[in-house]
TrEMBL record:
Enzyme superclass (EC): hydrolase
Pfam families documented for this protein: Calx-beta, Trypsin
TM segment ranges: none
Top-level lineage group: Bacteria
Organism the protein comes from: Halomonas llamarensis
Cytoplasm listed as a keyword: no
Residue span, Peptidase S1 domain: 1-270
Annotated keywords: Calcium, Hydrolase, Ion transport, Repeat, Signal, Transport
EC annotation from Swiss-Prot or TrEMBL: 3.4.21.-
Protein name: Trypsin-like serine protease
Molecular function via GO: hydrolase activity
InterPro entries linked to this entry: CaCA (IPR051171), CalX-like_sf (IPR038081), Calx_beta (IPR003644), Peptidase_S1_PA (IPR009003), Peptidase_S1_PA_chymotrypsin (IPR043504), Trypsin_dom (IPR001254)
Length: 398
């Protein structure tokens, strides 16, 4: 991750300081970055990181140490277009659950990303904005953090530059940022598109080799997945501080827009989870705690009614809530939005239960479901609540 500082270690992210769910995705002698999703069993990354891979390994740096987990399978977006960097997304499923200490992330689903501040996290090469990234040689890649702001979309850039860019972004599918240093001469979108914004100051950064597949967060949700960088010019004017594509001031970067691709992500995760219940009679309201790792307990949401239109999305928000069980001690809290896409009438929500070897009473936690859009819970009903019981299996207590 390139930053404007002359000391890239200032922006290193050490285990336990946050972003422990941002991972390194290794394929042969190459690597990119990725982010662990809710449920602790799948990582979102870029298709070009994995394209043609035989084996994939996910490295996690956690407070408990470095952990390598092999992938059980992976899937590229079926419409991945390398030439235009469209649909450049992939999912990786882990052979074992991620450790509890690794942070899980939800998707940013809401639109309106342009103008939003973002945090970029990844295992890219270090460097500074004047000279670009530096080859780290034999040094083990480190996780780094930078900030930026979403300036425009890929199709808006294409409309402005026409033949000035050789690729063809799908409308609304790519988020674009530039790397500012506070100078109007190196404000890429000021020069190229008349979008004058001098950015986030000394904390601003750009992606570099190794950051491909890494997340761009809006607050705590994944809004973008790192795809490419470019140096551009218009009418003989180049905002790039050194006219070399090396992650220096005046360059731009693109991210796959997660809100645009959320249907593929959600449906891919649902299809892969063969343990999720599909009938009410298959739902278990209790789960044995286990001795380590996490186990999944499910809630099944069903819609009984008719959509206003065949292509309508139905949504509800949901959040876990403590009963006698405590979040992050007995289960991993989750807050998200569930969407039933066209053709779907039900979907399961998985919550991770944390195993341990401590004798304790059976405990409960709740899932609250609220804010339905496209349907209702019934007249006068604002919220639905379900409960799950964690059965202790560690012996008797007094």
């Amino acid at each position: 991750m390139v930053t404007v500082t002359q000391n890239p270690d200032r922006y290193r992210v050490m285990p336990g300081e946050g972003y422990d769910g941002v991972v390194q995705v290794s394929v042969g002698g190459f690597y990119g970055s990725g982010v662990l999703l809710n449920g602790g069993r799948a990582v979102l990354t870029s298709a070009h990181v994995l394209d043609g891979a035989d084996a994939v390994t996910v490295r996690m740096d956690t407070p408990a140490g470095r952990l390598n987990i092999s992938a059980s399978q992976y899937a590229l977006h079926p419409f991945y277009d390398e030439a235009s960097s469209n649909s450049d997304l992939a999912l990786v499923w882990l052979e074992e659950p991620a450790p509890v200490s690794a942070e899980r992330s939800a998707l940013y689903r809401y639109g309106g990303e342009v103008g939003s501040d973002i945090s970029l996290v990844g295992y890219g090469l270090p460097g500074d904005g004047l000279t670009g990234y530096e080859d780290s040689g034999s040094v083990l890649p480190a996780k780094r953090l930078a900030e930026n702001r979403v300036d425009t979309t890929g199709d808006a850039l294409k409309d402005a530059l026409g033949r000035g860019i050789a690729w063809d972004p799908l409308p609304g599918s790519q988020l674009i940022i530039d790397f500012d240093n506070g100078s109007s001469e190196n404000d890429a979108f000021g020069v190229l598109m008349g979008l004058h914004d001098l950015g986030r100051g000394a904390s601003e950064g750009l992606i570099a080799p190794g950051d491909s597949g890494g997340p761009a967060f809006i607050e705590d949700n994944v809004a973008g997945v790192a795809t490419y960088t470019a140096t551009l010019s218009r009418n003989g004017q180049s905002p790039d501080v050194n006219d070399t594509q090396d992650g220096s001031f005046g360059e731009i970067a693109s991210f796959q827009r997660v809100s645009y691709y959320q249907q593929w992500i959600d449906r891919s995760l649902r299809v892969a989870d063969t343990d999720a219940p599909t009938r009410p009679e298959d739902v278990d309201t209790t789960i044995r705690e286990g001795d380590d790792d996490t186990s999944l307990v499910y809630f099944l949401l069903e819609f009984h009614g008719e959509r206003d239109a065949p292509d309508q999305w139905l949504t509800v928000d949901y959040a876990t809530r403590d009963g006698t069980a405590a979040a992050e001690e007995d289960y991993i809290a989750v807050t998200d939005t569930l969407i039933l896409y066209p053709g779907e009438t039900q979907a399961a929500i998985a919550v991770e239960v944390i195993g341990d070897e401590i004798p304790e009473p059976d405990e409960t936690f709740h899932l609250d479901v609220f804010n339905p859009v496209g349907g209702s819970f019934g007249e006068g009903v604002a919220q639905l609540t379900a409960v799950r019981t964690i059965i202790d299996d560690d012996g008797w207590i007094a």
